[in-house]
Amino acid sequence: MVFARPLCPFSHPARRGWARHASLIALLLALPTWSATAQTGLRPSITTTAPPAAPPTPEQLKQREQELEAARAAQKAAAEAQERLKADIAALGEDRGKLNQQLIDVAAQVRSVEIRVGEAETRRRGLDGREQDLRTSLEARRTEIIEVLAALQRAGRRTPPALLVRPEDALQSLRTAMLLGSVIPEMRGRAEKLSTDLGELVAIRKTIASERDKLATDRDRLRTDQTRLAALVEERQRKQSSAEKDMEAESARAAMLAQQIDSLQSLITTMELDLKSAAKAASTASLQGVPVNAKPDANALRNPTRKAPAIAFASTKGMLTYPVNGNKIREFGASDGAGGSDKGISLAARPGAQVTTPCDGWVVYAGPFRSYGQLLILNAGGGYHVLIAGMERISVNIGQFVQTGEPVATMGITSQVASILATNASQPVLYVEFRKDGTPIDPGPWWAANEGEKVRG
Questions:
Q1: What is the rounded average pLDDT of the residues 287-306?
Q2: Where residue 81 falls among pLDDT bands split at 50, 70, 90?
Q3: Closest CA relative to residue 377, chosen from 363, 367, 358
Q4: Which of 76, 107, 305, 327 is a Cys-bridge partner for 407, taking CB atoms 3.0 to 4.6 Å apart?
Q5: Which of 240, 266, 293 is the last residue of a domain?
């Protein structure tokens, strides 16, 4: 009789490691194949022949009653929120400064949440892509997974040889162990790789769920802030209308004049000469121009009651923020695709994004113009004009003074600017142009280098 040591490589602690790999891989095999709807938290629809409708059970009736009660509670909460909003606006009274500050603050909140929503959506797209890559890779290796899992299960069930055996049995066990020894390292590596991929997939799914919850919260916050901002804008324009009795007639005349004009410079000149409200704004801009200051005081922009620029436009270089959250897709001086060059910059924005003023100024035109869609022109004083085009809706009137960071327009769903200015016509594009004494200039030096240097009023 020969005494032999146990030769099975799966005995004692090693079994536990293999069992762990086997359980993880078995979990992978149990995972259903996700459809696109499953990734969004919805069950995939299956076309089947619907059985005859059965009467609702008491549990179903109770669930429907609870859903109805929840809907009533949500409706009541929305009505109460609307009443609180009306009360807040009424409390502002005729204090124009408080209203301006509210407008600027809420517009800044909206733009901040827009940034968070955009960043979250970008992260979600990356996670979704990585998840799809992992699922595709694991699906392609399904046969390999089955083979490894089967081998691990067989190895786990194999009992170690007896310590007291015949010589020929010991020799057979030794040969089996030598054969397994050449296969086991490769099998272990495959199992560990599959286990790692599965662990990453599980972690990504948890991260996606967390990101989805954060995104839903931010979108709810954005809707709430947009509702409040819309009410504040409406109140601002109501007060502006009561102050300017002939505003509707002026707007109609501006639209008529715009149809007879071919160029932007002619539009500016005509508005500031022939339109009473625009002429008054232009005259005020030239009379109340602020001297250029080598060291402008950004704190001066925090006065919400001002009716003239706090800082000369020429002194705001390196201080201004883009009118909308977005990526620059066309540079000043770039080819416009028609043998000329762009006189401004183009920003790709989110659908429905909020547009705010980059500087203080007087509105000398607000309305549709040629291929620019909705066009807003501000007289910033000192011979400077700021042109903003491509919005779907403008919320200020000609002759109105607007402060830095004040909401003035909203983007649409697709590009409103002619294709010569829009790189991607399927998304909203905002066009921004600066002019000095009628000549387009490079706006680059005016934009802040980073978020901390921007002025928002």
A1: 72
A2: low
A3: 363
A4: 107
A5: 240
- Which residues neighbour 429 within 8 Å (Cβ) at sequence distance 6 or greater? 329, 346, 347, 348, 349, 390, 415, 416, 417, 421, 422, 423
Give the model's pLDDT for residue 325.
93
Taking every pair of Cα atoms in the chain, the longest distance, rounded to a whole number of angstroms, is 118
**212 or 155: whose pLDDT is higher?**
212
The CA-atom distances, in angstroms, between 293 and each of 50, 131, 311 are 76, 55, 8
Total-model pTM = 0.65
Q: Does 219 or 143 have the greater pLDDT score?
A: 219
Classify residue 50: in a domain, yes or no: no
Both 105 and 181 in a single domain?
Answer: yes
Beta bridge partners of 389: 375, 431
Residue with the two structure tokens 């007639």:
249
The answer to whether 283 and 418 are in contact (CB under 8 A) is no
* Mean pLDDT, the chain, integer: 75
Reference 435, options 398, 382, 392, 368; nearest CA is 382
In this structure, the answer to whether residues 208 and 271 fall within a common structural domain is no
Q: Are residues 312 and 291 in the same domain?
A: yes
52 in a domain, yes or no? no
Question: Is the same domain home to 138 and 278?
Answer: no
Amino acid (1-letter code) at residue 255? A
Within a domain: 169: yes
The CA distance from 278 to 101, in Å, is 25
pLDDT at 454: 56
**For residue 150, which phi and psi values (nearest 5 degrees)?**
-65, -40
Shared-domain flag, residues 216 and 363:
no
Spatial distance between the Cα atoms of 226 and 135, rounded to a whole number of angstroms = 39
CA–CA separation, 286 and 301 (whole Å): 19
> What CATH number is associated with residue 321?
2.70.70.10
Residue 136 confidence class, pLDDT cut points 50, 70, 90? confident
Q: Where are the alpha helices (DSSP H) in 260-378?
A: 264-274, 276-287
Out of 240, 262, 282, a domain closes at 240
Asked whether residue 385 carries a pLDDT value surpassing 60, the answer given is yes
Q: List, for residues 310-337, the tens digit of each pLDDT value.
A: 888 988 999 899 999 999 998 998 887 7
Least confident of 48-57, 208-217, 439-448: 48-57
Domain that holds residue 393: 245-453
Number of independent structural domains in the chain: 2
d(CA 12, CA 312): 81
My answer on whether 449 and 338 are in the same domain is yes
For residues 127 and 234, membership in a common domain is answered with yes
Q: Per the structure block, which two tokens stand in for 308?
A: 């003239």
